[in-house]
Amino acid sequence: MQSAQPAVHVSDLRKTFEVPVREGGLRAAVASLVRREHRQVHAVDGISFDIAPGEVVGFLGPNGAGKTTTLKMLAGLLYPTSGELSVVGHLPSRRESEFLRRITMVMGNRNQLQWDLPALDSFELMRAIYRLHPDDFRRARDEYIELLELGGLVNKPVRNLSLGERMKVEICAALLHQPDVLFLDEPTLGLDVTMQKRIRSFIAEYNRRHGATVLLTSHYMADVQALCKRAIVIHHGRILYDGELARLGAQFNATKTIEVTLRDGAADLTPYGEVLSAEDGVVQLRVNRFDAPSVTARLLRDQPVEDLTVVDPPIEDVIDSVFAEARDLRQSEAP
Amino acid sequence: MSGAAGTSPPAAGRPRLIGAWRGLLDVYVENARLALNEQFQYRVANYFYMIGMIAEPVIYLVVWTTIAEQQGGSVGGISSAQFAAYYIVWTLVRSMNIVFTPYGWEWRIREGELSAALLRPIFPIVSDLGFFIGWKVVVIVLWLPLAALLALLFRPELSPTLLEICVFAVAIWGAYLIRSLNQSSIGMVTFWTTRVGPFFELYMTVELLLSGRLVPMSLMPDWVQTIAGLLPFYWTFGFPIEALVADLPADRLLGGLAMQLFWIIVGAIVLRLVWRVAIRRYSAVGG
Q1: Does A109 lie in the same domain as A27?
Q2: Final residue of a domain: which of A249, A267, A294?
């Protein structure tokens, strides 16, 4: 049953940065002493969404889209310029202790642990900072150590751990207070495939065991596909799509790929669609998604088909086409 | 994967919390423990740091001792042995006075490193205070042999009373608190200027002149001493040293502690007010 109050509520949220601008060179440097010019950058430009308790949502967008700025406002690190914002019933920018105890934010490129000491020492500091009862702390710590297979790592100085090991330990530290809402900003950045999988499955398990709400950004679509049923796509600070990840392709992807294996080798299939590749008798055709059934029927009728499959393009390609569409739209709007 | 809304009830409720005051004490203890663990790993580096630090008072000591001997044994009523006592105690007070500097704040703010601290349900200065308390334990342990060596070389005259020792023991921590609060407030300037260096250098110059760090304040003109008494600097340097070495009467000793308390309260209020305004400007760049 869905809870009445969303875990995260965002309405018409905006964040504008004022950044100094000047030309390069000495002359411009001297001129800037007298007159400074600033430019307004609308990092987040009126976005709205709700996330229900326990929901796992992928927050997608290219670099500079406004994903991290949004996460930072949700975590209380940044003050919004305007708009409504509520996380587990709190206004994040107030950074009340009760709010901070219920959230966590993991940033892929940041280290919160004491570099020179074993992670266990940093865990104890977390226990103190979050005022955790020793029994509850130990239970959570031991649970995560087991789930993340950290047994041999937590006694080593953090500086001696690999990037992937450090990230696992970092995630463990960030969850010791058992937060209800997780803001994960590129948690698998720079990790190898095995480590990415381990972290993914841990996040899924944490969500299952604790009913936690998760908002995740990642450049790895595998993260999003493995964890999220819902995706929010943001570009230039605006939401382009908010809905089921599975329907993202249906909405934004106008094509399907037909892979045909011919019995007697290569043939010219250009009349059927755009030939993407043709090797060893296997031809890949891109066709309009609405034409896919009729093209398939024609191929089966007219060609010596040994095998045929119709597939949606990879989600990465769909996302790329979403951003390309948005870019074209902006360019056509430009004066 | 069960990521749908509301399909997975929590396996466990919210974790239990310990009391607020016990929690606060815990934060100090854990931060101090971390600092102890970390700094004892770098004891050689710390020792070289301490040796470098005592170069400054040894220069002052040699200069004033020479002048005193040339003037018949004393300067402004302070003998060579009293100068030795002043500057040896100086080394301990200086070590106790080391705090998280505005340069540290500048780094945190410019590089976005403050983000991690802001995500925690505790005012960042609390962690800084706790961490430097732990470091001071290391510093005191390392200071003892250096102080013994200086005492052998310069033969200080030091015979404090029990009250003076007690006031000194409190005053060095008072000095630490005042400097921590003031320098954190200066660090907040970074939120507006991005770089805090010039402002901090100005602060340090004034402190050098009006604190008793360069020379004992009793050697300064009366008007300078009057100004110094109205500012926080003297209460973080000259007062703790004089509490131990200068045979101050009880009313001046206790009055000095009262002044420290006053500056702690002022420093805490200023920091809180500045923080409230400054943190709105944080852009969390890079972090």
Answers
A1: yes
A2: A249
CB-nearest partner of A117 from B38, B119, B284: B38
The domain spanning residue A315 has which CATH number?
Answer: 3.30.70
pLDDT 10s digits, B81-124: 999 999 999 999 998 899 999 999 999 888 888 999 999 999 99
In this prediction, residue A333 has a pLDDT band, given cuts at 50, 70 and 90, of low
- Contact assignment for A204 to B3 by CB distance below 8 Å: yes
| Integer Cα distance of A40 and B216 in angstroms | 53
Largest pairwise CA distance in chain A: 77
Low-confidence ranges of chain B (pLDDT < 50): 1-11, 287
Of B5, B15, B282, the CB nearest to A178: B15
Best interface-test mutation with B: which of A17, A36, A102, A131 has the largest number of B CBs within 10 A?
A131
Instruction: Give pairs for A29-36: CB < 8 Å, separation 24+.
Output: none
Range of the domain at A33: 8-249
Inter-chain CB proximity B287 and A121 less than 8 Å: no
For residue A124, the chain B residue with the least C-alpha distance is B30
Residues A59-101: tens digit of each pLDDT: 998 888 899 999 999 999 999 999 999 999 999 999 999 999 9
Distance, in Å, from the CA atom of A271 to the CA atom of B247, rounded to the nearest integer, reads 105
Q: Which residues contact A231 (CB under 8 A, 6 or more apart)?
A: A57, A58, A59, A60, A224, A241, A242, A243, A244, A245, A248
User: With an 8 Å Cβ cutoff, are A77 and B282 in contact?
Assistant: yes
pLDDT at A102: 96
Q: Do A140 and B15 touch (CB under 8 A)?
A: yes
Same domain flag for A226 and A151: yes
Say which of A56, A105, A229 has its CB closest to residue B119: A105
Residue tagged 């900003």 (tokens): A185
| Number of domains chain A is built from | 2
pLDDT tens profile A253-298:
778 889 999 887 767 888 999 888 888 788 889 888 888 899 999 9
pLDDT attached to residue B44: 81
Residues A232, A144: one domain? yes
Q: Which residues of B fall within a CB distance of 8 Å from A227?
A: 1, 3
Mark whether A102 and A195 lie in a shared domain: yes
Cβ contact B12–A209 (<8 Å): yes
Q: Decide if pLDDT at A165 tops 80.
A: yes
How much is the pLDDT for B10? 35
- Whether residues A13 and A120 fall in one domain: yes
Same structural domain for residues A111 and A163? Answer: yes
Please determine, for the modelled complex, whether the ipTM score is greater than 0.90: no
Which whole number is the average pLDDT over A43-49? Answer: 96
Contact between A52 and B6 using a beta-carbon 8 Å cutoff: yes
Q: Are A84 and A224 contained in the same domain? A: yes
Same domain, A82 and A189: yes
The backbone region for A306, taken as left when phi is positive above 0, alpha when psi lies in -120 to 50, beta otherwise, is: alpha
Name the strands in the sheet holding A103-107, side by side, starting at the edge strand that comes first in the sequence.
A103-107, A181-185, A213-217, A56-60, A230-235, A238-244
